[in-house]
Design brief:
This protein is an alpha/beta fold and 794 residues long. It is built from 31 helices and 25 strands.
């Protein structure tokens, strides 16, 4: 263990933090906590603590927060999962009772800036903190520059494939913005000194607690199973192997926690395990507990209700909060003896069990296909073995194919050093720092590099990374890539972002995707709208972020029928994305594609929003409006005839389809129908009144042409005008006039009322066809058009 001498083991909370004694759920600190406390509460240095799972690191986070609050500061707690941010909100009502404000900031909640500014403790995921620090100079997120202490829970998340680089650059950015104290907490890791070096934590504020500090000793093994040709059958082979390992502990009155790959797997495994335990005649103590059975009847999930009465449960993020809370409470109370869960539970609720079995070491990722479970997840799950105060030892097992056994034995024996994942996404993250103005010259680029864990880790492991000179060359080459790609402008030593660079950063796009979207938007070149629905869907499906999507045989057959030859030049995974987006527009996704459809649609909607913004900046309002209509159809699953209706608050897919079937297709039709017409179309009177009120706030245009003659002589000229008035609320709009298909004038404005000139010039044509188009880039309404025809008289 590194670090300075700590307090005496078992020191009372009241002796160390007397003003906050009521904020802790215990009276005394344990041995590990006592050793680290002086660095946290007597000094202002950055602190890094590596300790076994379930050893009590949360109390250290709370101690650091207490020191910050005592000084009148603001603390930021970075939790690895969104579910954990919500749990902290519940747990930390202890701070609320002392008069301190706790505010959880997540993407699923509407931000209240005044609450965030007043908060004493902010709770976020790394992704939300990344987003918030990118917007730190906006009034809504200015509170991010007032953070005095940042606590990073599970800092070993740095080594996570997708999320590690986000955590790394967010912490580096935060340190440049407001230089908060950093307290980083981690499960056991090999290279704690690298993390400490990155965060400038002194040696006597860096702690590495080994297995001797585990509250319960751990015995971990790797177990193999008889691998077959059928993946479905293999799941059951692994399940039976897991039950073999868990049964002795269940027979002895203990509990087992079995981790599986997916939500659906938790349910199926629990169902099969119930039958198998009954067949093996395994005694489950809760089976005769009448009161428990009565409580179980209140569960919202039918399958769970039937399962828990036999002492077998499952836990995943898709359950309601009430059901999850009950399962957790019953497992802690020993009512549930066998619990199946996904890996997210290992990062969240402290639910240790005497026996932990990892049944699945591989999982299906909608964007990656079959992937190995992260070594971080494996170690985190195994760390849940052993229940303090109840078990003398914990038993953890990894069930895997024989070919992988040595890999997992090595992981259990040697652990894993924490590596930086920034190199894999260096270009997009450097672009983001430039777009934010955090980096604005060449020297700043190198300065930014030196604030990263990537740089710190490279100093200690040059064999795994480039040396310092090579790192600088790599960053210089990355900067040149940004300049050549049009993301950054460079003038001498100064650099600044372009509109392309800002949009790529705003929407978290890979550079290849941003370049493709930009190219699509400017391809028309003459100011005319050139996009069709197929162009839009294809651009999104072909985004670089979807390149790793895989397609099974049954999925290929399904999307082949759906696409009917479209996108045959795309890779199978990208064609699968195209099919999911296309069928999502009408709510007719085939069953074979549904397992990944939700994740792919969610990501597709993000890319559609980005493409719309690209069209607004580099294309035309008409193109942006088309993308917005496609986006709305993918989101709601409605046909083209009904998409305009979802612009009205209170109209979702069901009501839109119902109204469209009655001949109503947009807000103008709703206003014309009135309450009586909406009731006739099948809405209740109350809903009709609310819908009519909302439709009244949307654009309602009147168009007036003046001075445009019906005919003009050859060689003669006339000057007219057209006025567009919006009687609804103001809305961004593109107003465009063409004559015989050639653009005469166009403007984009916040539309209340506007008048545009119309020049009439008698020439060689037989007639002049003037077309007015008003397109709303941010609303899924069809463009509104009007025309005038002027004859040319000889």
């Amino acid at each position: 263990m590194a670090g300075r001498t700590g307090y005496e083991t078992g020191i009372a909370v009241e002796d160390v933090l007397p003003a906050f004694a009521d904020a802790f759920p215990f009276e005394s600190f344990n041995r590990m906590q006592s050793a680290a406390l002086p660095a946290l509460v007597e000094r202002d240095d950055n602190v890094v603590v590596s300790a076994p799972t379930a050893s009590g690191k949360t109390a250290l986070a709370e101690a650091a927060i207490c020191r910050t609050l005592a000084a009148g500061g603001t603390a930021l707690f970075l939790a690895p999962l969104r579910a954990l941010t919500n749990e902290k909100e519940d747990e930390w009502d202890r701070f609320e009772s002392l008069g301190y404000s706790v505010y959880v900031v997540t993407g699923e909640r509407e931000l209240t800036p005044s609450r965030a500014e007043r908060a004493d403790i902010l709770v976020m995921t790394p992704e939300k903190a990344d987003s918030a620090t990118r917007k730190h100079d906006s009034p809504r997120y200015s509170f991010m520059t007032d953070v005095d202490c940042c606590v990073i829970d599970e800092v070993h998340l740095l080594d996570s494939d997708r999320r590690g680089a986000v955590l790394e650059v967010t912490v580096s950015r935060l340190r440049r913005l407001c230089a908060p104290r950093i307290v980083a907490l981690s499960a056991t890791m090999q290279n704690v000194d690298d993390v400490a070096g990155w965060l400038d934590a002194p040696g006597d504020c860096t702690f590495e607690f080994g297995d001797g500090y585990r509250p319960v000793p751990l015995s971990a093994t790797v177990e193999t199973y008889a691998h077959g040709e059928n993946a479905f059958a293999d799941k059951y082979r692994r399940l039976y192997r897991a039950l073999d390992l868990a049964q002795p502990h269940i027979d002895d009155g203990g509990q087992a926690l079995v981790f599986v790959a997916s939500r659906q797997d938790t349910v199926r495994a629990a169902e099969k395990a119930r039958d198998e335990l009954a067949e093996r005649d395994v005694e489950i103590s809760s089976r005769g507990d009448y009161e428990y059975h009565t409580d179980a009847s209140e569960l919202g999930n039918d399958t769970l209700r039937q399962s828990v009465v036999d002492g077998v449960g499952f836990h995943h993020a898709g359950l309601s909060k009430a059901d999850k809370d009950r399962v957790e409470a019953w497992f802690k109370a020993g009512k549930i003896q066998l619990l199946f869960s996904t890996s997210t539970l290992a990062w969240g609720v402290n639910l240790p069990a005497r026996c932990v079995v990892i049944r699945d070491t591989k999982l299906h990722d909608p964007l990656e296909g079959e992937v190995d479970m992260s070594p971080l997840d494996i170690l985190q799950m195994l760390g849940r073995a052993g229940r303090p105060g109840y078990d003398d030892a914990g038993y953890a097992h990894v069930v895997c194919d024989g070919a992988d056994a040595e890999k997992y034995r090595r992981l259990l024996r040697d652990g894993k050093p924490i590596e930086s994942r920034l190199a894999e996404e260096l270009d997009s993250h450097l672009n983001a720092e430039i777009a934010l103005g955090v980096v604005d010259d060449i020297e700043d680029v190198m300065g930014w590099l030196e604030t990263t864990f990537y740089y710190a880790r490279a100093q200690s492991a040059p064999d795994r990374y480039d040396d310092s000179a090579s790192l600088r060359d790599r960053v210089s080459a990355t900067l040149q890539r940004l300049v050549d790609g049009g993301f950054v402008d460079q003038s001498g030593l100064e650099i600044e972002p372009t509109a392309l660079g800002r949009l790529a950063s705003q929407f978290y796009l890979r550079l290849e995707t941003a370049e493709a979207f930009h190219s699509l938007c400017v391809s028309g070149g003459d100011g005319t709208s050139s996009l069709g629905e197929t162009d839009v869907l294809r651009a999104v499906a072909d985004a670089a972020e979807f390149d790793s999507v895989s397609a099974r045989r049954d999925e290929r057959e399904a999307f082949g029928a759906v696409l009917d030859g479209d996108g045959t030049d795309l890779d199978p995974g990208n064609r699968k994305v195209l099919a999911i987006l296309k069928t999502g527009m009408s709510g007719t996704t085939p069953g074979e594609l549904k397992s990944d459809a939700w994740v792919i649609r969610r990501n597709g909607l993000r890319f559609l929003a980005a493409l719309r913004a690209f069209c607004e900046r580099f294309g035309t309002p008409s193109d942006a409006n088309l993308v917005r209509r496609v986006e709305a159809r993918v989101e709601h699953g409605v046909g083209s005839e009904a998409v305009g209706l979802v612009a009205v608050d209170g109209i979702g897919a069901g009501r839109a389809q119902k109204l469209a079937a009655e001949g109503l297709s947009d807000p103008a039709d709703i206003r014309a129908a009135g309450v009586e017409g909406l009731v006739s179309a099948g809405l209740s009177e109350g809903v009709s009144e609310r819908v009519l009120e909302q439709a009244g706030a949307l654009p309602a245009l009147s168009i007036e042409w003046r001075g445009v003659p019906e005919a003009v002589g050859a060689g003669e000229n006339a000057m007219g005008e057209v006025t567009v008035r919006n009687e609804g609320d103001g809305e961004p709009a593109g107003v465009r006039i063409t004559v015989n298909g050639i653009e005469m004038t166009a403007e984009t404005r916040y539309l209340g009322e506007t008048t545009l000139p119309v020049g009439v010039f008698g020439g060689d044509a037989e007639e002049l066809v003037y077309e007015l188009e008003v397109a709303f880039p941010e609303l899924p309404l069809r463009p509104i058009t009007d025309r005038r025809v002027v004859a040319i008289e000889a």
